[in-house]
């Protein structure tokens, strides 16, 4: 299906946004629930944090090989496969009493995430009418800041008071509902025809690619370490009961930052990138050296601004024509 209308297919783009929302929630929700997960499965909080590590490993190992192997496949079955992968992984996570089985499920969820992120942006661009690709991409990617600003704090609150298994069960239900939503509103597209592609070595040789990848790796690694172990950090400073509020501050700051970054990025991409890195550095120093509650909230709000800005600054420009997007973004 390749026909387009002269207006944005909002319902389908919102379905893509919810897919991103589920992906981020599945990835980051354990960060606010490490004590509960560890106690339930009889492991330390540090070991419970490996749920995030195995998820990331699955994404890392799956993204490029799966994208390359499935580039000629039709798009909607791939998208549905990724969502069903989340539903299965989260259901197993919610039901199992084995930490090892849960780790395997988290790895499967990470593989699903690697596939979904390879599809999401390019899918939105292909759904958009001519001249509206940027707006379509903005709608489809809105699930990420919403997950960070609303989903994670709400999921943490629910997990603390009703049990972490319930939160993963709800994620399973959302994923299953999303399958029907995608079938009803998201068009199918052909895969890419087999053409000659540059090798990874050739891609790495392109000017600017290696610095961008290095900065992104370091930033995301630092962010995920801090975010994953935020609950033990708060415990150390005696405010563990405020985990949900701290994450809410982080998310709200990130949501505000998304708006400001979107308004300024066209003219100030490089300065915004440098400001984001500086804000995250300031946040890390505040959290490491000052244990007072105001410093904790100040540090996490700075981290939220930096991380949300990074999501905009470290991905392809939203007004870039579809043909200029990397192969894995065009999928």
Structural write-up:
- The relative contact order is 0.15.
- The protein is built from 15 helices and no strands.
- The protein has one domain: MFS general substrate transporter like domains (Growth Hormone, Chain: A, Up-down Bundle).
- The protein has helices spanning 10-28, 34-41, 45-48, 50-69, 75-95, 99-127, 133-140, 143-162, 164-185, 200-204, 209-228, 230-236, 243-289, 293-313, 327-330.
- Helix 8 runs antiparallel to helix 9 (164-185).
- It has 331 residues and is mostly helical.
Global Rg: 20 Å
Number of strands: 0
> Low-confidence segments, ≥5 residues, pLDDT <50?
292-299, 301-306, 314-331
Indicate the CATH class. Mainly Alpha
Helical stretch count? Answer: 15
Overall mean pLDDT score?
79
Helix/strand order: HHHHHHHHHHHHHHH
Q: How large a portion of the residues is in β-strands, by DSSP E?
A: under 5%
Question: What is the compact description of this entry?
Answer:
It contains 15 helices and no strands. The protein has helices spanning 10-28, 34-41, 45-48, 50-69, 75-95, 99-127, 133-140, 143-162, 164-185, 200-204, 209-228, 230-236, 243-289, 293-313, 327-330.
List the helices and strands and how they pair.
Blueprint lengths: L9 H19 L5 H8 L3 H4 L1 H20 L5 H21 L3 H29 L5 H8 L2 H20 L1 H22 L14 H5 L4 H20 L1 H7 L6 H47 L3 H21 L13 H4 L1
Helix pairs in contact: 1-6, 1-7, 1-8, 1-9, 4-6, 5-6, 5-9, 6-7, 8-9, 8-13, 13-14
Which features characterize this protein?
mainly alpha; Growth Hormone, Chain: A; 15 helices; disordered C terminus; single chain; 331 residues
């Amino acid at each position: 299906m390749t026909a387009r209308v002269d207006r944005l297919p909002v319902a389908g783009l919102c379905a893509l946004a919810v897919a991103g929302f589920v992906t981020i929630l599945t990835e980051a929700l354990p960060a606010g629930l490490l004590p509960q997960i560890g106690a339930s499965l009889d492991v330390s909080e540090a070991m419970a944090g490996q749920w995030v590590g195995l998820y990331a490993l699955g994404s890392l190992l799956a993204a490029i090989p799966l994208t390359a192997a499935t580039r000629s496949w039709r798009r909607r079955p791939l998208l549905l496969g990724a969502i069903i992968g989340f539903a299965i992984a989260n259901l197993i996570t919610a039901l199992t009493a084995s930490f090892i089985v849960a780790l395997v499920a988290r790895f499967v969820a990470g593989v699903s995430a690697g596939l979904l992120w390879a599809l999401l942006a390019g899918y939105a661009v292909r759904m958009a009418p001519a001249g509206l690709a940027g707006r379509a991409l903005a709608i489809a990617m809105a699930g990420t800041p919403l997950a960070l600003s609303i989903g994670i704090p709400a999921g943490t609150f629910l997990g603390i008071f009703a049990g972490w298994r319930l939160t993963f069960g709800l994620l399973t239900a959302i994923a299953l509902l999303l399958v029907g939503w995608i079938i009803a509103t998201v068009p199918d597209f052909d895969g890419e025809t087999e053409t000659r592609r540059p090798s990874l070595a050739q891609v790495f040789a392109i000017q600017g690619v290696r610095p961008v990848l290095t900065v992104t790796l370091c930033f995301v690694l630092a962010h995920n370490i801090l975010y994953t172990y935020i609950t033990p950090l708060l415990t150390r400073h005696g405010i563990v009961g405020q985990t949900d509020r701290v994450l809410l501050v982080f998310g709200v700051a990130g949501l505000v930052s998304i708006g400001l970054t979107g308004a300024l990025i066209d003219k100030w991409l490089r300065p915004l990138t440098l400001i984001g890195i500086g804000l995250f550095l300031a946040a890390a120093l505040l959290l490491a050296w000052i244990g007072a509650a105001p410093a904790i909230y100040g540090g996490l709000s700075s981290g939220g601004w930096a991380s949300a800005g990074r999501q905009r600054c470290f991905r392809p420009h939203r007004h870039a024509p579809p043909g200029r997007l990397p192969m894995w973004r065009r999928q």
